[in-house]
Specification:
Layout (H helix, E strand, L loop, with lengths): L27 E7 L4 E6 L2 H4 L2 H9 L3 E7 L4 H11 L3 H8 L6 E5 L2 E12 L2 E11 L3 E6 L7 H9 L9 H14 L1 H21 L3 H33 L7 H67 L21 H22 L4
Parallel strand pairs: 3-7
Antiparallel strand pairs: 1-2, 1-3, 4-5, 5-6, 6-7
Helix pairs in contact: 6-9, 7-8, 7-9, 8-9, 9-10
Length: about 350
C-alpha cells in the first residue's frame, strides 16, 4: 500500500529552492477562460512559450475567470514562470514541488494556497495524490502530480454550462474542485463496505491466514483515509469560519455542504474501523476456538487410551505363574485370558465414551 511519500531538500537548503523532481509523467498544462457567456479552453505546451506576461496580464485584467491546471510532474522552470506571472510565493511553490505535504491552507498577500490530497486506488491499495491550489481574485491555478486528470468532470460541466460554475467566481470553482476531491472518498468507502461484508461471511465459514492479512490491509487503508480526510475537514472548517478576501460569503454556503460531506466520510471511516477491529477479534476468537476443539479431541483420545495402556502395561510384565505365590497372574496361562482382556478394554473404552458424551465434552 502506498503511504505518504515526502520529497524534501537536504537540511540547510535555502528556503524556496526548487529542485527537479524524479518523475516520469510529463507535464500537461490546460488553460480555461470562462464567464457567463464565454468559454475558451486550450492546451499549453510550455507557459514560457505560449503564455507571455502580456497575455497573462490580459487574462488577469479581464472580468472572466482564468483556470490553469498543471497535470503530471511540474518542472522548476514551469513553476518559476507561473510564479512570476501570477506573483506566487516561493515557499508555496516549494511545497508544490516537494509533494507529500500535509493538508493545509495558507494566505500570502491576498492569495490563498491550499494543499489537498486525492485518494486513489491502485493494485497495491490506496495512495494519496497531492493537489495544490492558488486562488486569486479572478484566477485559480491547480497542480496534480498524477497520470490522469481527475478534474475532467468539472471541466465538462464548464463546457456544457451545467450548474453555477460559469456564473460564479474563482472561489466557487475552487469549491467545485475541492468537493470532487472530498467526494472521491464515497466510492472508496462503498468498496470497503463490500469487502467488510465478504470478510464477515468468510469469518463464519472457514477463516484462514489470508483472511487475516486482508483484515490487516483493510485496517491500514482505512487509517490512511482517515489521515487524508480529517485534516481536509479542518481546512474546510478554516475556510468557513475565517475571513478571506478571495472567498465570498455565498460560496461559504456550498463549502459548508462540502465540510458536511467530509464529516460524513469520517463517521463512516470510524464505523468501518470499529468493524474491522471486531472482525479481527472474531478471527482471533475463532482461531482460539479451533485450537480448543483440537485440544479437546486430543485430550479425549489420550484419556481413552490411559486405562487401556495401564492394562496392557500390567499384563506386559510377563510374570510367569507361580503356584506357590498367592499373587501369581493366572491370566497369562489361562486359555481365555487374551480375549477377556480385550473385552474388558473395549468395555472400558465404550463406557468412557458414553461418559464423555453425557458430560458433553465432545
Amino acid at each position: 500500500m502506498a503511504l505518504f511519500t515526502k520529497r524534501y531538500h537536504a537540511p540547510g537548503t535555502l528556503p524556496g529552492t526548487l529542485a527537479a523532481p524524479v518523475c516520469e509523467v510529463p507535464p500537461r498544462i490546460a488553460l480555461v477562460e470562462f464567464g457567463p457567456d464565454t468559454y475558451e479552453e486550450r492546451l499549453i505546451a510550455s507557459p514560457a512559450e505560449c503564455l507571455s506576461p502580456e497575455e497573462c496580464r490580459a487574462y488577469l485584467d479581464s472580468p472572466s475567470i482564468t483556470w490553469i491546471h498543471v497535470e503530471g510532474c511540474v518542472t522548476p522552470d514551469t513553476l518559476q514562470h507561473l510564479g512570476g506571472l501570477f506573483g506566487l510565493h516561493p515557499l508555496a511553490l516549494e511545497d508544490v514541488l516537494n509533494t507529500g505535504q500535509r493538508t493545509k491552507l495558507e494566505s500570502y498577500e491576498g492569495q490563498l494556497f491550499l494543499v489537498m490530497h486525492l485518494p486513489a486506488q491502485n493494485r497495491a491499495g490506496v495512495e494519496a495524490q497531492q493537489v495544490s491550489f492558488f486562488l486569486g481574485h479572478n484566477y485559480l491555478i491547480s497542480f496534480h502530480d498524477g497520470e490522469t486528470d481527475p478534474f475532467e468532470p468539472v471541466r465538462g460541466r464548464l463546457r456544457r454550462r451545467a450548474g453555477r460554475l460559469r456564473d460564479r467566481g474563482a472561489d466557487y470553482l475552487l469549491y467545485g474542485l475541492v468537493d470532487l476531491i472530498v467526494d472521491q472518498g464515497f466510492p472508496l468507502l462503498e468498496d470497503y463496505g463490500e469487502q467488510i461484508e465478504s470478510i464477515e461471511e468468510a469469518l463464519l465459514d472457514d477463516p484462514d491466514k489470508a483472511l487475516l492479512n486482508h483484515i490487516h490491509r483493510l485496517r491500514r487503508e482505512l487509517l490512511l483515509l482517515r489521515r487524508l480526510i480529517w485534516p481536509q475537514s479542518e481546512v474546510l472548517r478554516q475556510l468557513l469560519h475565517e475571513d478571506y478576501p478571495s472567498v465570498q460569503d455565498q460560496t461559504k454556503v456550498f463549502l459548508r455542504d462540502c465540510h458536511d460531506h467530509a464529516l460524513h466520510i469520517l463517521d463512516l471511516l470510524e464505523s468501518y474501523r470499529e468493524m474491522t477491529t471486531v472482525m479481527l477479534e472474531a478471527y482471533l476468537s475463532s482461531a482460539s476456538n479451533r485450537l480448543n476443539e483440537a485440544m479437546r479431541v486430543l485430550t479425549v483420545i489420550a484419556t481413552l487410551f490411559m486405562p487401556l495402556t495401564f492394562i496392557v502395561g500390567v499384563y506386559g510384565m510377563n510374570f510367569s505363574v507361580n503356584e506357590s505365590s498367592p499373587w501369581a497372574m493366572p491370566e497369562l496361562r489361562w486359555a481365555y485370558g487374551y480375549p477377556v482382556v480385550w473385552g474388558v478394554m473395549v468395555l472400558i473404552g465404550i463406557a468412557m465414551l458414553f461418559y464423555f458424551k453425557r458430560r458433553k465434552w465432545f
